[in-house]
């Protein structure tokens, strides 16, 4: 029988808010990738937990939303863009002191509109290795997946 993948535990030494039975919070996350392979990182606004940490844009589902609906709404709210096709990529469970979150990472290769930082966040187009820090704990594995993607392509060509 396949065992469920255990969560990535962030800041394990800190107390967990909500105790052992806290609910899982679903989060839609967009990895916007340009044709040259650069991807977009944004910094968390000052009024949020892990303020100033770099992450991929996105946010929590609202009731009844699908991954695609939540991501389309969040990318418009945060960046002012209209997303085209959304490709579901990977999921990850992260146990933070403030919440237990399930991150639904999606690749977005196609969008329209100029980027606007509507939450006064900073942004950086990056490639591996990234030059911004600190990176949000739940975001670190994505950089490893992106690196693996590049390795796969290099192996083919
Ligand atoms: N957007 C985003 N959130 C991430 C990433 N990695 C990661 O662990 N998270 C976690 O997912 C959760 C997203 O919450 P959020 O506060 O950004 O969501 P939101 O915009 O809906 O917040 P709001 O309720 O304040 O409007 C946070 O617990 C954050 O730490 C990531 O790459 N992008």
Automatic annotation (TrEMBL):
It comes from the Bacteria. Belongs to the Nudix hydrolase family. GO terms for molecular function: 8-oxo-7,8-dihydrodeoxyguanosine triphosphate pyrophosphatase activity; 8-oxo-7,8-dihydroguanosine triphosphate pyrophosphatase activity; 8-oxo-dGDP phosphatase activity; 8-oxo-GDP phosphatase activity; metal ion binding. This is 8-oxo-dGTP diphosphatase. SUPFAM superfamilies: Nudix (SSF55811). InterPro entries: MutT-like, Nudix_hydrolase, NUDIX_hydrolase-like_dom_sf, NUDIX_hydrolase_CS, NUDIX_hydrolase_dom. Its cofactor is Mg(2+). It is an enzyme of class 3 (hydrolase). PROSITE patterns: NUDIX, NUDIX_BOX. It comes from Rhodoferax antarcticus ANT.BR. Keywords: DNA damage, DNA repair, DNA replication, Hydrolase, Magnesium, Metal-binding, Mutator protein. PANTHER family: 8-OXO-DGTP DIPHOSPHATASE (PTHR47707), NUDIX HYDROLASE FAMILY PROTEIN (PTHR47707:SF1). Signal peptide: none annotated. Its EC number is 3.6.1.55. Residues 1-21 are annotated as: Disordered. The keyword Metal-binding applies. Residues 23-148 form the Nudix hydrolase domain. The keyword Flavoprotein does not apply. GO terms for biological process: DNA repair; DNA replication. It catalyses: 8-oxo-GTP + H2O = 8-oxo-GMP + diphosphate + H(+); 8-oxo-dGTP + H2O = 8-oxo-dGMP + diphosphate + H(+).
């Amino acid at each position: 029988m396949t065992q469920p993948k255990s969560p990535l535990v962030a800041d394990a030494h800190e107390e967990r808010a909500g105790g052992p039975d806290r609910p899982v919070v679903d989060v839609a996350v967009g990895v916007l990738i340009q044709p040259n392979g650069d991807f977009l990182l944004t910094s968390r606004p000052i009024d949020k937990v892990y303020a100033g940490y770099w992450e991929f844009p996105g946010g929590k589902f609202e009731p009844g939303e699908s991954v695609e609906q939540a991501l389309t709404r969040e990318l418009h709210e945060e960046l002012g863009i209209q997303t085209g096709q959304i490709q579901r990529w990977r999921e990850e469970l992260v146990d933070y002191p403030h919440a237990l979150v399930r991150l639904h990472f999606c690749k977005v290769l196609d969008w329209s509109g100029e980027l606007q930082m509507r939450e006064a966040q900073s942004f950086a187009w990056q490639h591996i290795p990234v030059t911004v820090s600190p990176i949000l704990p739940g975001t670190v594995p994505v950089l490893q997946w992106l690196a693996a993607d590049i390795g796969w392509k290099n192996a083919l060509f």
